[in-house]
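Team,

Forwarding the record for the chain on the shared tracking sheet. I've put the sequence and predicted structure together so nobody has to dig through attachments.
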Amino acid sequence: MPTRRRTAPVAALALLCALTALTGCTSPAETVEPPPTLEWPDALTLGADTPDPFWVVWTAVAEQSDTAVDALQPSIDELGAAGYTVEAWDPACQSGAEEQLAALTGFTDVVAVGVPFASEQEAGAFDTLFEGSVVSVTPGAYTCAS
């Protein structure tokens, strides 16, 4: 009498192993740490004690003109709704920012809305949490007189 091979259970076990590997399932004994909860970082107040470097998350850029503030107002309002008090300012107050924003936008004399932060991590947390548009994130030293 011929011997019957039991291939169905072996195939089912192989399929289960393959699916577990593809889906990243873990065994009940493994514990997966939840990702840390991000919190809205505090913005810097720029002045003589501004850390070097600091990071700015730029949310809007316009060509310097009489109507520039009108063009930037929606971003100012959006940041205000998120709890940040900002106004349009000259990106030349941060080393390298004016050149980077001009290169991105093609504007020759830029004015922008940005939120300054003390660290790259804070700027990254803001960038992740903020649902509005972000033009760029720039690091640099404070260059304007207080």
